[in-house]
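Note to self: user wants both folds in one dump. Writing first protein now.
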Amino acid sequence: MGTTDKGYGTDTEAIRKCAKYIQKTAIWIQNILVS
């Protein structure tokens, strides 16, 4: 995962990617628990 070299621009992008990844993982876990 990329660390911040260029300040806040890359930082917010990394946070967004992280949030999307967490969302996908949460949905994936829910699907496993339901089935």
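First done. Writing the second protein, which came from a different request thread.
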Amino acid sequence: MQTWEYSNQYALRSYAYLWLYAGPAKAILAGLQWLASSHPELSSIGGYSIVDDEAMLVYFGYRFVTAVASVICELYFVGALPRLFRFCRQPREDQQAAWKVKSVAVLLLICAAPSVGHASFSTLPTSFCMSLYFAALGGWIRLASPSTSFAHSTSTWSHRPALVVLCVCIVVIVGIVGWPFALLLAVPMALHFALKAISWSLIGVLVAAVVCGGVFVFDGSYFCTPYLCAACNIVKYNVFGAEGRGPELYGVEPWDYFLKNLLLQWNILFVMGAAVFPCIALRSMLASLWRGGRQKKGPSAAHVSSCSVSTADMASLAWYCSGFFVWFALWTRIPHKEERFMVPAYPFLFLAALSSLVVLWQHSPSPSPWLKRLGNVRQVGIVAVVLLFGVCSYGRTMAMMTFYGQPQKMWQDPAIRRLTASSVRGPSAAVPGLSSSASPMHRVVVCVGKEWYRFPTHFFLPHNSHNTSSGASTYAFLRTKSFSGALPKPFSSTEGSCAARSDMNDLNQENAGQFVEDMNSCDFVWDSVAEHTLSSSAQQTADENGWVWDSFTDNIGPASGDASAFRLLDPVNTPLLCRALHFPFLPYYQTCAKWHHLTLRTRRLT
């Protein structure tokens, strides 16, 4: 399917970005084909047939590769943290031993964050930016000398020019290949690099620009898109768009949208991240009290000095975390908001939350009994914060899997996959109601109703590259009352991405021919039915247009009496607490949710 952003007259998205995922996908497909031909005894992987389910195996394979790449970036970030949190300068051996344990704890916090885990598997540009910013932030922190303050750490910069160039290249790739607006997160980093290593930073910009420029020239010639960088087009449309165009066409949200969303996704860690500056100020104040009392009956002045917190230490923490606050302040003022817009800032938010925990946890000797008691209470409170984060993250993860994971589970179901695979059209059966360029022979057509945006992907439809006569499959859209905007359309079967698409627009208006003309064009109809209704939106549309459904029969869903029907949460009739978190072992959460039942109507075989 091609969206208007990828059409060559608009070119807001680059096909070069897709090759980051198409490359691993093609390699996985080649590996599956080799296994099927060379080792026929290996007929399945994880219960899925190498031949019949190869498209779905490719889907899970390239998402696994994406997740591994994201984890590598996160590990690189975690490995740099000992250089940042170095307030007590113990012997090197003691620091390494302590940070082995602390690094495991930090990794567990990252893994427990449902938003980071979800983004790590995604193929969105914002998720790509998040992973690269984990790596860039790790490199930036490594450039800080472990023995000097942030403000005077010039020696490491001069001795590690390759790391400077690498960090700059990563940031440039984020903006050009990923999402150009994400460059705003790197403003504090850019200022620091300009101050410390301006020449090597410019070299990094030049290297990244040359590489990305070459890629975009190839991308433009191969996919017939303008040579002008897609990043320029997306900025032009969203910032300098003509009247009637712009992101507001796709919905607006109140200023507190991201405040609520980050509380939902990060719960108590968002609070800790937002409070990083007060925590740093409190830590500095307590450090002053400790230093002021060392002359009385505290430990030796030398030991207190070695464990003190300098103003430069606190300033460095604040500067590393400041990118998140720049980003958050910007997006609260922009009317169009989506959850994914915060994803690139997750590394900076996590660092801010971790900084709050570390500066409050960090122990310094104190001659005052009440300060010692305060330190004990503080550490108990931090343990409580971590436990609360784990519990809330578990509840949020279970809510996402239980309430919104059913569409994918439905199309993974072996019975449904056998059903769709057995319904391939015959050699002479073109698909009526779809344009000839979008409906080649031998195709299974799944029509989706109001739940079109929940349909997992065409990878879950039957496709067998070993037997081209069985054909590929596609999905199409049914007109419903719930949506009337622009939807993606199939690529041209003759010209591909080079086709001039006069049937697309950038006004979020319905495109010509984006809906099927007759429901009998469909081999399957996928939709949902609320608990208090008897028909889906697709059925209502069919009734209004006089379409005959006699050739279809329900076999999945409440109409068939199937008690194990796949379901979706009904957010309108479900209480807020119930849909935000889900603890399946608690009685309240077993009965509070209201549901939409997913239905699959199939053509009756004769």
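Dump finished. Worth passing along: The first strand starts at residue 44 and ends at 45.
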